[in-house]
Design goal:
The protein is built from 11 helices and no strands. The chain is mainly alpha-helical. The longest helix is centred in the C-terminal third of the chain and has 22 residues. The chain is flat and about 65 Å long.
Length: 260
């Protein structure tokens, strides 16, 4: 079975055993595994989409109503669907962004499905999130994910324990794989830049999961390894009290163990 050298997520070697959704079955190839994962990986925004995102954020920072002002709803259905999908996709990839604006966006989209409002607008503002899988499938290009160089092209370069020459070598190997794949599969339906966008999106997702998911899994592993819910070692109680040390809740040791 193939693996991703130097990457944060591999099909055969996951330090924390994160479950079947992030590891291929024993009979599946790396291509099958990454194709399945691609269904849940948002596509990185391109230059045009970033401009539209700026428009969306500017409008939401003033008022969500500005987006609907002086517009012919039905004639602009695709515009609304696209710009709102871009905002939702951006938020998925960057949870720390659009803190206030995203709340307005969600309320706007929720209101849009109220029967009376929907009858007034005569359009649907919500469409599925654009993923790597949906983008490639639409262009009959899912075979890209099964190329032998895909593990190199989507790996995350992790510097831990490596010297500069090693890191540079891995970067060159990755970029070369991306160039070879994008040039090999580009055609009149999907461009080289669009293929690169997909590959970088997968790499982004690897990095995101490693930095946001793996630390939680490691913490849970340490919790179950070093703590016993029914036994408190001196100086190692997990109990918390509201108002102390920033705690908002009051839990005894056992409750906090299972709460975590």
């Amino acid at each position: 079975m193939e693996s991703v050298s130097g990457g944060g997520i591999t099909p055969e070697s996951n330090e924390f055993g994160t479950g079947p959704e992030l590891s291929p079955t024993i009979n599946s190839s790396y291509g099958d595994w990454i194709e399945e994962r691609a269904k849940y990986i948002p596509l990185r925004l391109n230059t045009d989409e970033k401009k539209r995102l700026g428009l969306l954020e500017a409008a939401l920072n003033v008022s969500g109503q500005e987006l609907l002002k002086n517009k012919s709803f039905e004639d602009n259905e695709e515009f609304y669907q696209t710009i709102f999908e871009i905002g939702r996709r951006h938020k998925i990839m960057n949870p720390e962004k659009m803190r206030d604006a995203y709340g307005k966006l969600v309320y706007l989209l929720m209101d849009s499905i109220i029967p009376d409002v929907k009858d007034l607008l005569q359009l649907n503002l919500v469409i599925p999130i654009k993923t790597v899988y949906s983008f490639l499938e639409k262009r009959d290009a899912l075979k890209i994910l099964h190329h032998q160089l895909i593990p190199d092209a989507v790996q995350e370069i992790i510097p831990n324990g490596k010297n500069r020459p090693q890191i540079d070598q891995e970067i060159r190997k990755k970029e070369r794989a991306i160039e070879l794949i994008s040039n090999h599969f580009s055609n009149r339906i999907i461009s080289s830049e669009e293929i690169k966008q997909c590959l970088y999106s997968i790499g982004d997702n690897h990095a995101y999961l490693r930095s946001n998911r793996d630390c939680c899994i490691k913490m849970l592993k340490n919790l179950t390894t070093y703590f016993n819910p029914s036994k408190i070692e001196s100086g190692y109680s997990l109990a918390i009290r509201s108002g102390k040390g920033g705690a908002r809740l009051s839990h005894d040791h056992e409750t906090q163990f299972f709460y975590a």
